[in-house]
Specification:
homodimer, alpha+beta, Ubiquitin-like (UB roll), 2 domains, eight-stranded mixed sheet, seven-stranded mixed sheet, 15 strands, about 35% helix
Chain lengths: ~400, ~400
């Protein structure tokens, strides 16, 4: 069977194991290595409170070459002051020691509970064990994907294989937790590997674009966590003619990367805590792209819309209410709304529609809500998921 | 027993009855009258999509004298185009005809489902019956309070009696639905009566201030509905020395009005759909008052905080996560958080605390979350309620 994990691209090794952060015994330490050194780029949370891991990772990612990424799950190492920062530094130092590289060649991420100190001795012991286990097998890649999980119900991975200048190129990724919203957990982590030969600035540009249209279009609870991190490493071992400009080769790479991120984003939203279905919100007729994005987010984040989707209810009044309070320019006399292909509201007036058919649309695993603001020509979109009683149970019954 | 309804102040009559908008047979038409004519002021939703009632009411409230307020519940008359506007005009015309005044002396409000046309014949017939029933009794006032309800579980009323220049002055109010968030319902309506003699500009000023610190500080789902309306009518029959400047008499009136609105706001949030407890969020140490207000709202609207309160969980990490993503200025090294009197986080570092005691605080019917941003001297506050599985059930299982 083909290797569809982060070890699929040439030059990558991985490992995952239980070191003792999680009481459940589940995997909680993940290690990714690129012995030949990789070009790296990353995107981080915009939350003003960030984990110690994010603070350290932001510095290290400026290094010319990255050889390893170390990740722990079960503890976010956030709101932990100076001791937290020292622990993140220790994690990088231990990884560097094991792989015989410099600490600044190690990237780091943490995810889990906020405000508790890391059991650092267990983690450094785990890093030593993980380094000994590093392997290019698909089993090792899957172990990595499992070790970054928190309340995720399954590992989420995606891969794309394509050709550039006659050479086979692979991009693979693993993400955790669009559950966002795990009990007290800090949330999205995304790790992507590729063997494409590409310059660092173009790698960063392609990552930013891909994340902007995928992970950054997801909204489960409307808030970015303190730990959100997306990292891409490029080993350059595919043998392709290096991508050094925004030529057709770059476009092929960027498109494949966008596909990988889009695939991961869909898996994340469908695995969101308590989520039973997802929806795409398309807003057109906006005065500006920013207005369109804001309106789309307002709809996807509106608890009443999320509840209606949960109940399979074609309740378009709630969609219009969300749009009206989003603070965007709109023309009430030109406003329109579609559920899937069914027009339910047009020119500010309700349209007769088959409620049973509309309910069927809303009850699908995935449907599209389209809103026309009647105020311009800009458009944008985002993805949301339903809000279920199960979500509340998960997040209320858990106790710190 | 004292009359504690909107008919308590001198000069007001009320009525409430079932005219046929609601299938349940519950009251759905409310009428308030001030035969001698009242000075009036109002505050409306900032949603860009507003009901036909709001459009008409905004015009009529500019009249020098208001003699009646007509309200229907069960149908918001929103997103109903020209026909909806014509129906709102008809409701005022019928009320004016019955009470023998001009249509512009009638204020109007609607609340209920969005996107359906009013059964206007049933409503005009109901107005005629309500006009015949108008009474100054406390029974009539209670009927009014019940007829404006949608998914509210009980009528919500408040009254204050005080003296101005030796004359007894009364302020009374009735509100509906901080359930916000009724199934497809447009939400907050607030009607206040007083017999104080006061100029219109000062009446408007006092209302704006009182609503700003009460109803506008509530957040159940973070969105203003399409129909939100607060109206105050002053008959001037109390016999007090008229309030014509911002003198101590004005302050006494404004304080009493603020108390009435605060009382109504508390009742609303505790009667929110599925809500089991409420909380106050106080944000201090902000760079600006706007930052403080924004951070407070971000905390009160954050689903994970609302779920934690539902579960009685002192989960302060979620509070800090919400603050960090609110887009306000903050100093991570000076950030602090208190649950009731218990400091759980200070100077960016977690503090040891008794988890059982903290859980007791969060499990109260009402508690205060205090956050210090460490970025300045401004402060602000707001009220929120918990998010329960029951809320989701109410809003998912309802079908349009």
């Amino acid at each position: 069977m083909a290797n569809n994990t982060v070890t699929a691209p040439k030059g990558f090794l991985a490992a995952g194991l239980h070191c003792g952060v999680k009481k459940s015994g589940k995997f909680d330490l993940a290690l990714l290595a690129c012995p030949t050194g990789a070009k790296a780029a990353a995107v981080f949370t915009t939350n003003k409170v960030v984990s110690a891991a994010v603070q350290v990772c932001k510095k290290h990612v400026k290094s010319a070459s990255i050889s390893a990424v170390v990740v722990n799950s079960g503890n976010a190492n956030t709101c932990t002051g100076k001791r937290g920062l020292a622990n993140a530094v220790k994690m990088c130092a231990e990884t560097a020691k094991q792989i015989e590289i410099g600490p600044h060649n190690v990237l780091i991420a943490s995810t889990g509970i906020i405000g508790k100190h890391l059991p650092i001795k267990k983690i450094t012991a785990g890093i030593s064990k993980a380094a000994a286990k590093l392997s290019a097998s698909s089993k090792a890649g899957l172990d990595f994907a499992e070790a970054i999980m928190t309340t995720d119900t399954k590992p989420k991975q995606a891969v794309r294989r394509f050709e550039i200048s006659g050479a086979k190129v692979t991009i693979a990724g693993a993400v955790k937790g669009a559950g966002m919203i795990a009990p007290n957990m800090a949330t999205t982590l995304c790790f992507i590997t590729t063997d494409a030969a590409i310059t660092q600035p173009l790698l960063a540009k392609a990552l930013k674009a891909a994340i902007g249209n995928s992970l950054n279009r997801l909204t489960v609870d409307g808030h970015q966590s303190t730990n959100d991190t997306a990292i891409i490493l490029a080993s350059g071992l595919a043998g392709n003619r290096p991508i050094v400009s925004q030529c057709p080769r770059y476009k092929r790479f960027a498109n494949a990367l966008a596909e990988v991120c889009g695939d991961l984003a869909r898996q994340m939203v469908l695995d969101a805590e308590g989520a039973t279905r997802m929806f795409k919100v398309v807003v057109k007729g906006a005065a500006t792209k920013a207005d369109a994005a804001r309106a789309a987010r307002a709809i996807a984040d509106y608890p009443l819309v999320k509840c209606a989707v949960n109940g399979g209810d074609p309740n378009w009044g709630r969609i219009i209410c969300a749009v009206g309070s989003a603070g965007v320019k709109l023309n009430p006399n030109k406003l329109a709304c579609k559920l899937g292909p069914i027009t339910v509201f047009k020119n500010g007036t309700p349209r007769k529609f088959d409620a049973k058919k509309a309910s069927k649309v809303v009850s699908q695993t995935e449907h599209t809500i389209t809103v026309d603001l009647g105020a311009g020509k800009a458009s944008d979109f985002c993805y949301g998921c339903d809000l279920s009683a199960e979500y509340v149970r998960i997040n209320a019954d858990y106790h710190t």
